[in-house]
Specification:
Blueprint (H helix, E strand, L loop, with lengths): L4 H6 L3 H5 L7 H10 L1 H20 L5 E9 L5 H4 L3 H19 L2 H11 L15 H16 L5 H13 L3 H7 L4 H15 E5 L5 E8 L2 H57 L30 H28 L7 E5 L12 H26 L6 H8 L3 E6 L13 H4 L4 H16 L7 E6 L6 H14 L4 E5 L5 H7 L19 E2 L6 E5 L9 H13 L6 E5 L18 E7 L5 H13 L4 E9 L5 H9 L3
Parallel strand pairs: 5-12, 6-10, 6-11, 7-9, 7-10, 11-12
Antiparallel strand pairs: 1-3, 1-4, 2-3, 8-9
Helix pairs in contact: 4-14, 7-11, 7-12, 12-13, 15-21, 17-18
GO molecular function, one term: protein tyrosine kinase activity
Pfam family, one: Wzz
Membrane topology: Multi-pass membrane protein
Length: 629
């Protein structure tokens, strides 16, 4: 109950232990990359080519930068306040200036000053369309190849130019109205203008991008000058309006002061403390009559106070007017240019290295995505754990592909020609696995079959028999597949003397194959003429009884796609090995074959994969070779 987790895992069978630990190892990733390396590299190259096409057909864009400095204006009563208040005021002021710089008013001032509406260099920065890009690419190809001067090409180019409705020609035939041209110019200006605050300072960067380097510098400087000029004009207009208002107010107050003074003087001249009831005093001209005190009279003191009040108002307005008139010639802007824009020498866009790197990365990601999608949809045998998980069988060997040989398959005597190769090592491992399986029960008659022809079944049969024969074990190969590559090669070769079983006694069926001494071959050539499974079983059982001198009998069975009738002899064998080609044999067909063998009560030793591009045990073999002896 309190058993340790590692002990619980150790007590599980190999099937149970494999299920919950199905993870992706580093070797799986390396195998995946090696398998789909061509597709991944192809997509990467395609991404680089697309990036090069974009760079070659794009117009270079130049960026010029100028810098202005905003002079902050903080009221005197706020200068001694905490820094938070000053900072908030500064931020709002700078943001307001940024909004002014991006306004349409500044844009129109610059467009009018430089005449950009009629400048052909002042164009849209969105770049050409896909049709224009292909036309530019073709034009560049023609110029590089030097066929532009050929008479036939010139005629063809003129014909195509007349037939296709190019955008430039359409715009020339249909001119736009001035309002639309003005709106388009403002949009182009807004697209090329970039205004940014430099950190938390009062400096502002004005950057303008254009197809012409000199034009970009001119527009950047003109934008800064227009901003400064707009501030001066705005301040001047505000000051002029203030002076005009003061003048009007001064006239009104002066008239009221004169009237009040005149009434006071007339009252004093009469030496009387009362004024004619029919005459209204100056300070009550605009007031309604006093209904509570209808008989109350105005005194001299009231008249003198009213006249003095108007005099003080007039003096204040006069002082403000004099101050405004004196300061008007000294009106300056709250901003100044600290860095002027110069003509850039290199284009800022497109960024060639960045675009190429992005194209390569995008192609790499697309290639990996394509490979992952293809791998997820692939239901072919590629890894040993697939066989264990899907079929419940062991993968008893992985035969690597042999370069420059029969589509990757080894020769019929590959283990004798190159004993130190990876192929030979894998075949020796298969022989050892069969020997280990024979430790618990006799393993004399071994059948080898596959899903479809061309999976390397004959190569496995021949090399396995050669290994047994080379080790001094008398070996007999029985061929029950008339389409076998082994039978076709042996029967057509003059080096082999093979009898037909129809002409001799069963005891004389075998002849020695010249691979090694002690190895014989018997061709069951009439397997197609056997009408039913019972006859086939009797013939195979009879043959197996007559091969007493041989310690190992290897039977090459027909593939599963040829029909399941020939597999009826599998229960007569001690074990059956299923051959599957790496990346070609379907897991569904392999499952059908193994299920058929189980239904016939055949003993399936496992699955052997051929033409394996990346052997899962290669890492262990390298470590074993590097281990000290």
């Amino acid at each position: 109950m309190l058993e340790r987790p590692l002990s619980a895992i150790a007590h599980k069978t190999w099937r149970e232990a494999d299920a919950p630990h199905d993870f992706i190892s580093l070797f799986d990733i390396v195998s995946f990359v090696r398998q789909y390396l061509f597709f991944i590299l192809s997509f990467s190259v395609a991404g680089i080519l697309c990036s090069a096409f974009y760079i070659g057909t794009s117009d270079p864009i130049y960026a010029a930068r100028t810098q202005i400095l905003i002079e902050p204006k903080i009221p005197r009563n706020l200068q001694q306040q905490p820094a938070e208040i000053n900072l908030s005021l500064d931020t709002a002021q700078v943001e307001s200036q940024l909004a002014v710089l991006r306004s349409e008013k500044i844009a129109m001032m610059v467009i009018d000053d430089l005449g950009l509406m009629n400048d052909p260099r002042f164009r849209d920065l969105n770049g050409p369309g896909i049709g224009d890009r292909f036309r530019r690419a073709w034009t560049n190809t023609v110029q590089v190849s030097g066929i532009g001067d050929h008479a036939g090409y010139v005629g063809l180019a003129n014909f195509v130019d007349r037939m296709l409705p190019w955008v430039d020609r359409t715009q020339a035939n249909n001119p736009k109205p001035d309002t639309e041209r003005e709106r388009k110019a403002v949009e182009i200006f807004d697209d090329g203008l970039d205004v940014q605050r430099v950190g938390v300072s009062y400096a502002i960067d004005i950057t303008f991008q254009s197809l012409d380097p000199k034009l970009s510098a001119r527009i950047a400087n003109a934008t800064a000058d227009a901003f400064v000029r707009e501030q001066v004009q705005t301040t001047t207009a505000a000051a002029t309006e203030g002076i005009a208002w003061l003048e009007r107010r001064m006239r009104e107050v002066g008239d009221q002061m004169n009237k009040a003074t005149r009434v006071a003087q007339e009252f004093r001249a009469k030496h009387d403390y009362a004024i004619d009831p029919n005459e209204t005093p100056i300070d009550r001209q605009d007031l309604p009559p006093d209904k509570e005190h209808p008989g109350q009279q105005t005194t001299l003191e009231q008249l003198e106070v009213a006249a003095g009040t108007y005099r003080k108002m007039y003096e204040s307005l006069l002082a403000a007017y004099t101050n405004s008139v004196d300061q008007q010639p000294y009106i300056i802007a709250d901003a100044r240019v600290i860095t002027s824009a110069t003509s850039p020498e290199t284009a800022s866009r497109p960024r060639k290295k960045l675009v190429l790197a992005f194209g390569a990365l995008a192609g790499l990601m697309a290639g990996i995505g394509f490979a992952v999608a293809r791998r997820s949809l692939d239901r072919n045998v590629r890894r040993p754990h697939q066989i264990r998980r899907e079929l419940g069988l062991a993968c008893i060997g992985e035969l690597p592909q042999v370069s420059f040989r029969r589509g990757g398959f080894g020769r019929l005597d590959e283990v004798l020609r190159d004993p130190q190769s990876s192929f030979s090592t894998s075949m020796k491992g298969l022989k050892a696995t069969i020997s280990l399986a024979g430790a618990s029960r006799p393993m004399r008659c071994i059948g080898i079959t596959s899903v479809s022809p061309g999976d390397g079944k004959s190569t496995v049969v021949s090399n396995l028999a050669a290994l047994y024969g080379a080790s001094g074990i008398t070996t007999l190969v029985i061929n029950a597949d008339h389409r076998s590559a082994l039978a076709a090669e042996l029967l057509s070769s003059p080096n082999f003397d093979v009898f037909d079983q129809d002409s001799v006694d069963p005891k004389e069926f075998v002849k020695k194959i010249q691979f090694v001494e002690g190895m014989s071959f018997y061709g069951l050539t009439n397997v197609d003429r056997i009408s039913n499974n019972a006859t086939l079983d009797k013939n195979m059982e009879k043959i197996l009884r007559e091969v007493g001198p041989y310690k190992i009998v290897i039977v090459e069975l027909p593939p599963f796609t040829s029909g399941a009738d020939a597999l009826a002899v599998c229960p007569l064998l001690d074990g059956v090995i299923v051959v599957a080609q790496w990346g070609e044999t379907s897991l569904g067909q392999l499952a059908d074959l193994t299920q058929t063998l189980r239904n016939t009560n055949s003993s399936v030793l496992g699955v052997l994969m051929t033409r394996v591009r990346s052997v899962s045990t290669s890492g262990y073999r390298k470590r074993a070779a590097q281990a000290p002896r």
